[in-house]
Amino acid sequence: MAMVFRLLAWSWREEARGNEKLPPHYVLALWHGRLIGLIPFHRGSRCVTMASQSKDGALAAGFVDGLGMHATRGSASRGGREAFGSMERALRAGAPFAALTVDGPKGPWRRVKPGVLLLARRMRIPVVPVTLSCDSFKLLHSWDMGMIPKPFARVVVEYGDPMDPHALGTPAEAAERIGAAMDEITMRLDRELAGRELWPPRETLPPSSPSDQ
After folding, report:
1. % pLDDT > 70, the chain
2. Binning pLDDT at 50, 70 and 90, where does residue 77 land?
3. Distance between CA atoms of residues 118 and 93, nearest Å
4. How does DSSP classify residue 201?
5. Rg of the chain in Å (alpha carbons)
6. Residues β-bridged to residue 13
7. Strand 137-139 to strand 97-101: parallel, antiparallel, or no bridges (unpaired)?
8. What is the helix (H) or strand (E) element at residue 92, kind and residue range?
């Protein structure tokens, strides 16, 4: 699977924006629906991420490990505490950054869960929002409206400004600010590369509830 993905990603015309302002260590916040196109930009980075303890998560973990990254196993509903502990240890041992799909693995869609903030605060490192868009893609009919760049697509990844986790307010305020930053970049890139906004506006999404966290 990793080899097939490498061949697909090899054909993409990749461009990164904002990477010059990345700090030495950080927590990368990304939407589940833009995950596939982001992976090649971080292959070989030795970053640490998280995959669920399901069978699909096992496949994802093997795939990520095969591309020079490392996946701990867990999710908000199962094994999350142990997985976050493993991520902390990896960061302290020298992993340059952690990457989290903040609305994964099953949603609510584009609602930021608290894990990214908790990890950043514990490690005293910033949160960096990241997203991508492209000019040729398949948009999945899935809960996350996932985007898969097609062969030879132009793929642009953009990193937002690093965000001090201790200056973002309460967990609810921080989640909204991180999500708004990610959505602003996503919609702008979609307009530039796809010619339109591919996802509905943030204000039309149902509000999150404590049970979602």
Report:
1. 88
2. low
3. 19
4. -
5. 16
6. 154
7. unpaired
8. helix 80-92
DSSP string over 157-173? EEE---B-GGGS-SHHH
State how far Cα 126 lies from the chain centre: 15
> Which one, of 82, 144, 142, 139, lies nearest residue 111 by Cα?
144
Domain segments of the chain: what residues? 2-195
Place of tokens 């700090």: 23
What pLDDT is stored for residue 20 in this prediction?
96
Count CB-CB contacts under 10 A for residue 197.
15
> What is the spatial distance between Cα 98 and Cα 119, in angstroms, rounded to a whole number?
9
The token duo for 69 is: 């990254």
**CA torsion, points 20, 155, 161, 114, in degrees to nearest 10?**
-130
Q: What does the chain come to in residues?
A: 213
Q: What share of the chain is helix, strand, coil (3-state, %, to 5)?
A: 40, 20, 35
Q: Are 189 and 132 in contact (CB under 8 A)?
A: yes
> Contact, 189 vs 133, CB < 8 A?
yes
